[in-house]
Amino acid sequence: MSPNYLNIICKKSINSSASSLVQDRILLEAKRLLKVSKKPVKDIVFDLGFYDQASFSKFFKSHTGMTPSQFKE
């Protein structure tokens, strides 16, 4: 399945793009790990597939309005 076709299907069935669904799922998992895991933020970042903590923090803050450390507290 091509990315374009996947996007068309997602938009038709749930009115959202495929990339938006992936980002929402990553954010949900990040929130879960930050709240229940005893791992440091650095380990969670790499578990979620981000290359560095700065890019994860930017992603997280743009979606939640707070840093991962603030959310974890």
Short description:
This protein is 75% helix and 0% strand. It is mainly alpha-helical.
Order of helices and strands: HHHHH
Rg is 14 Å
Oligomer: single chain
Return the structural class. mainly alpha
Average pLDDT metric: 91
Shape verdict: elongated
Helix content: over 70%
Put simply, the count of helices is: 5
The share of residues in extended strands comes to under 5%
Largest sheet: none
Which stretches are low in confidence, meaning pLDDT under 50 for 5 or more residues running?
A: none
- Number of strand elements: 0
Offer a few descriptive terms.
73 residues, mainly alpha, 75% helix, 0% strand
How would you sum up this structure, described in words?
This protein is mainly alpha-helical and 73 residues long. The chain has five helices and no strands. The protein has helices spanning 3-14, 18-36, 41-47, 53-64, 68-72.
How is the secondary structure organized here?
Layout: H1 3-14, H2 18-36, H3 41-47, H4 53-64, H5 68-72
